[in-house]
Specification:
By secondary structure, this protein is of the alpha/beta class. The chain is built from 17 helices and 15 strands.
Length: 442
């Protein structure tokens, strides 16, 4: 067994970490050297309960042996082959398996390598779809405030987290945004989908009239806003968006990079909510985080439009060097096997009521102004300190880590998204740690 050594200061200098205060981190690095099940192992040997499934992605828990063995076997057999005018059997099997659990009528998968690439791919497919249909004026995209759609130019343009966009403008033109659905005056401490807020979907009708409906290609939203603070959709909200899109011939894209592969107790949030979009972006739980992979699942309407032209012509001039990579496809197939064989989606659905009760038991603790949950997702909103800034949530997350529990801060909220295999005892420990920290926090 190879022993992993901790890098010294000189070795750490070369690595530019993403979304990280690099100088601060390297002065006191948080390093992991192993992971298994629900736990990370830190460089000092401490076991850390993973309350974030890595980064919303390790749905089946860490170090699932069937996935590890599938990757090893694939690497020994076929390390790489392009997907441009050639392919390999695992790519077709992976696509077929994903389509088999997708909503009815969504039967085609375009592979990318991350959620960011999946989003940019979906946006390009949307524009190209209307071009092949002869509606070349449909170029506008509608995103939503607080939405996160990766860090590509397209995804960043339709996203709605201001700090993520601030340093990189100007972004793509012809984009607009719906309002988010968080309103603590009406929705605080809702369990699951809030009863208030369906009317906010009607803002899409207003935007359609401002821009002319025939200029809009697609609306892209997360069914449950993730990085923006875990915002479940109000009751009836998604249904109204679907109806407005249908009325005006607009494509509806669900960004299910977080909600896909069991997070809400169903394969996709589209099925959990009973609303089928035209395109679904996915990644993260697609391979249990073990190998980078993303994809776009396309409905038959979209696919058929591209297949109407001459058979010898390339239908979509788009792709990536690593689209459908053999190791990623092997990991995805094995991941889907694990989800099925270990009843992980069903287990998440059974665990959700206990998760909800444990989260809402924090109501009444100091500075807790809202608790939101759905499936195995939750957010604990904390009152900001008088001097402003999201310092309280950051401090709470850091103190939880010191006690051996990994959670994240998003603005003024603590966000939670554990592996779907979390036990009742681990749920109790997770929320007990948060409660203890909140009681001590100023």
């Amino acid at each position: 067994m190879t022993i992993m050594t901790v890098p010294n200061q000189s070795e750490m200098e070369s690595y530019w970490l993403p979304f990280t205060a690099n100088r601060q981190f390297k002065a006191n690095p948080r390093l992991f050297v192993g992971a298994d099940g629900m736990y990370y192992t830190a460089a000092d040997g401490q076991r850390i309960l993973d309350g974030m499934a890595g980064l919303w992605c390790v749905n089946a828990g860490h170090n699932q042996r069937p996935i590890v063995e599938a990757i090893k076997h694939a690497a020994e057999r076929l390390d790489y082959v392009s997907s441009f005018q050639m392919a390999h059997p695992l790519a077709f099997e992976a696509a077929s398996r994903i389509a088999s659990i997708a909503p009815a009528g969504m039967d085609h998968v375009f592979f990318a390598n991350s959620g960011s690439e999946a989003v940019d791919t979906a946006l390009k497919i949307a524009r190209a779809y209307f071009r092949v249909k002869g509606e070349v004026g449909r170029t506008r995209f509608i995103g939503r405030a607080k939405g996160y759609h990766g860090m590509g130019w397209g995804g960043l343009s339709v996203a709605g987290i201001g700090r993520h966009r601030k340093d990189f403008g100007p972004l793509l033109p012809e984009t607009d945004h719906l309002p988010h659905t968080l309103d603590l005056a009406h929705t605080a401490f809702s369990r699951g989908q809030p009863a208030w807020g369906a009317h906010l979907a009607d803002e899409l009708e207003a935007l359609a009239q401002i821009h002319d409906p025939s200029s809009i290609a697609a609306v892209i939203i997360e069914p449950v806003t993730g990085s923006g603070g875990v915002l479940p959709p109000p009751q009836g909200y998604l249904e109204r968006l679907r109806a407005i899109c249908d009325r005006h011939g607009i494509l509806l894209i669900f960004d299910e990079v977080i909600t896909g592969f069991g997070r809400l107790g169903a394969p996709f949030a589209a099925q959990a909510f009973g609303v089928t979009p035209d395109l679904i972006t996915c990644a993260k739980g697609m391979t249990n985080g073990a190998v980078p992979m993303g994809g776009v699942i396309a409905g038959d309407k979209v696919w058929n439009a591209f297949m109407a032209g001459p058979e010898n012509m390339i239908e979509l001039f788009h792709g990536y060097t690593y689209s459908g990579h053999p190791l990623a496809c092997a990991a995805s197939i094995a991941t889907l096997d694990v989800y099925r064989d270990q009843d992980i989606f069903e287990r998440a659905a059974r665990t959700a009521p206990l998760w909800e009760a444990a989260a809402h038991a924090l109501k009444g603790l100091p500075n807790v102004i809202d608790i939101r949950n759905i499936g195995l997702l939750a957010a604990i909103e904390l009152a900001p300190r008088p001097d402003g800034g999201a310092v309280r949530a950051i401090e709470a997350a850091n103190r939880c880590f010191d006690e051996g529990v990994l959670v994240r801060s998003a603005g003024d909220a603590l966000v939670l998204s554990p592996p779907l295999v979390i036990s009742d005892a681990e749920i109790e420990r997770l929320f007990a740690t948060i409660a203890r920290v909140l009681k001590l926090l100023q």
